[in-house]
Each structure stands twice: as C-alpha cells, then as structure tokens.
Amino acid sequence: MKRRLLFRPEWLVYGAVLFLAIIVVCAAVPQWIAPYSPTEMNPANVLKPPSSAHLFGTDFMGRDVLSVVVYGSRDSLIIGVASVTFAVIIGGAIGVLAGYAGGLLDTIMMRLVEILMTIPGILMALAIAAALKPSLFNVVLAIAISAVPGYARVLRGQVLSIRSRPYITAAHSIGTSETAIFFRHVLPNSWSPLLVMATIGLGTSILVGSGLSFLGLGIIKEVPDWGAFLSQGRSYLMVAWWMSTFPGLTITLLVLSVNLLGDRLRDYLDPRSRRT
After folding, report:
1. The pTM of the whole model exceeds 0.90
2. Of the candidates 159, 164, 163, which has an alpha carbon nearest to the alpha carbon of residue 193?
3. What is each CA distance from 51 to 54, 110, 220, 243, 263, in whole angstroms?
4. pLDDT grade for 251, boundaries at 50, 70 and 90
5. Phi, psi (degrees; rounded to nearest 5) at 132
6. 270 pLDDT tier (thresholds 50, 70, 90)
7. Contacts of residue 159, Cβ cutoff 8 Å, sequence gap at least 6
8. What whole-number distance in Å separates Cα of residue 144 and Cα of residue 26?
9. CA 66, 227, 259, 189: dihedral to nearest 10 degrees?
10. 64 - beta bridge partners?
11. Which residue numbers delimit the ABC transmembrane type-1 domain (predicted)?
12. Which one of 49, 65, 98, 211 has the fewest CB atoms closer than 10 angstroms to its CB?
C-alpha cells in the first residue's frame, strides 16, 4: 500500500501560531501596534508607496495602510470567531439531537439539512446578507446559517458511529440510563471532529466575511475591515498596488495559518490520520 507523504516542516506550524498571535494582538489592542490613527488623513501623503515612514504605503485619502489593516483585523476576527461559534452550537445541537434520537425526528431534520446543503454556502451567505441591513450581527448571522448544515451532518455521523460501539451496548446492558450514556459517553467522544472542523471553518468564515464586505454587504464603518479595504483599493491597482496587496495578503496568510493548525489538530486528535 502506498504511503502518502506530506512535506510539512514544524516551522510552518510555528509560523502559523506566531501569525495568529500577532493578529489576535492587533485585534485586541490595535493602538499598541498601529503607528498612526486609522482615520488620520493627510492630503500630502495620498497614494505614497511603502517607505520607512509608512511600511504599507498610504491610501487615496492619505491614511496609513498598515494602521487601517491593523484596526480592521478586529472586525474580521470577530466575524470569523462569532460565526463559527454560532454555527457549531446550532449545527451541533441539530446533529446530536438527530443522531441520538433517530427515527422520524432524525429523518425530518436531516432532510431539512440536506435541502440547505444543496445551496452553496457562499451563495446562501450572500443571499441572507443581501436581504438584511449591513451590520456586524447580520454578517455573522448570514455566515453562521450557511455553515450550520455541515456541522450538523458531521456531528450526526459521529454520534451514530459512537452509538454502535460495544461500550455503549455494554452500558445499556448494565442498566445505565440514556441520559447518563449521552453525557458520559456519547457527547465527550463526539466533539473532536467538530473541533477540527471548527478550526478550519474559522478561516473559511473570515474569507466569506471579507468577500461580503468586498461586495458592499458587510460592515459599514469609518475604519473598513479587510474585505472593504480590499474593495476600495481595487480602483487604484494600476497606481497603488499596495492598497489591495497588503490586506489581501493578510487574509491569505490568516486562512493558510488556520488551515495548517486545523490539519495539525486533526493529527493530534486522531492518531490514525497521522502521516509519516
């Protein structure tokens, strides 16, 4: 049998952790990192290229691009974390209930989930965001709803797998109640694939949130998030490439970092998936 090989040196994982730590610090205390105010406009510095004074250059209003990217990380990170949290809670509850209850309830809930899964997640998020007013809550809601079916199916499958294992049969044979079996055996053993999926889903949620902001369906604020700032810079690609390059590069590196950590977390929680 062929052995799958994957070149993944440890420094990539360490780099991913370091980059995520930097983004978290930028989101938590942006005033400590940003060299200028993100709303400070200077007509004399309009569309200045990267330099020692402005590492990422300036935009069409003379704002420091680095400062805007640093302050924009807060909304982008909040969108990703909040949407994944809501999706895991709602989707996980549906999956656990359907998988453990079984019968007609399982059939009805899974048919509804399958109907939602026929709609691409980005298209569903786009439709929901377009129907609602642009706000942080509505963006989070749109992304969370689009991600719920995936989490529901994963957790349902895990619960069904655990229910068929010998130790669950043994617990039933000695008279253990269904409630005790659920909380002592089923629930604790079903969270690991959901955790891995949520970690990888964080990057996807940030990407979708940035996409909505890029299309004008995200948060409307004085300090734009990464997607909105990327949209502003597309009109200046020929004369100021740095306006779109740096926020786009930040999004790319963040999604890549989250995916690397999710892959490593999967290997840690499931030794059978480890590659040598």
Report:
1. no
2. 159
3. 5, 56, 29, 14, 37
4. very high
5. -110, 165
6. low
7. 95, 96, 99, 100, 186, 190
8. 24
9. 120
10. 58
11. 73-262
12. 49
